[in-house]
Specification:
There is one protein chain. With 136 residues, this protein is mainly α. It has one domain. It has a two-stranded antiparallel ribbon with strand order 1-2. Helix 1 runs antiparallel to helix 2, helix 1 packs antiparallel against helix 4 and helix 3 packs antiparallel against helix 4. It is elongated.
Length: 136
């Protein structure tokens, strides 16, 4: 597996870990309100999950075939899926900003981990698009 695909793998795993962690935390401080949290499966954040799962599936396709290659395992496929994940992340972040609930890493850890995962996956896609075939 070349360096770009390893970066995509690491980024997708990070993005999936971030999905389960809180993307927003409301209340629970000194205001006396109960603490309410929501993770990445609420709203447009689900696109991050779908994109990460599909990229992991693309990574495994060559290993599932007899020839060791797949027509779908192309840099442009990874680019399209990364774009879908970024759109989902931006839409969800914009929704949280409009509602006044956007938080920094102390109250929205999952959002930031998923963003970092997509950034790493994007770095890997850049490696794939540039044709860099160095092995990790």
């Amino acid at each position: 597996m070349d360096r770009g695909r390893v970066l995509v793998l690491i980024g997708c795993v990070l993005a999936l870990i971030g999905m389960a962690l809180p993307w927003v935390t409301i209340g629970g401080q000194s205001d006396g309100l109960p603490k309410i949290t929501a993770n990445g499966f609420d709203g447009a954040g689900i696109l991050v999950f779908v994109a990460a799962i599909l990229m992991l599936a693309l990574l495994t396709l060559p290993y599932a075939s007899k020839t060791g290659s797949s027509a779908l395992d192309r840099p442009v496929s990874y680019l399209a899926l990364t774009a879908v994940g970024v759109v989902g992340l931006v839409l969800e972040a914009a929704t949280l900003v409009n509602q006044g609930h956007f938080g920094f890493p102390d109250s929205a850890l999952g959002l930031w981990i998923s963003a970092a995962g997509l950034a790493i996956a994007g770095w890997g896609v850049g490696e794939l698009l540039s044709g860099d075939r160095r092995h990790a």
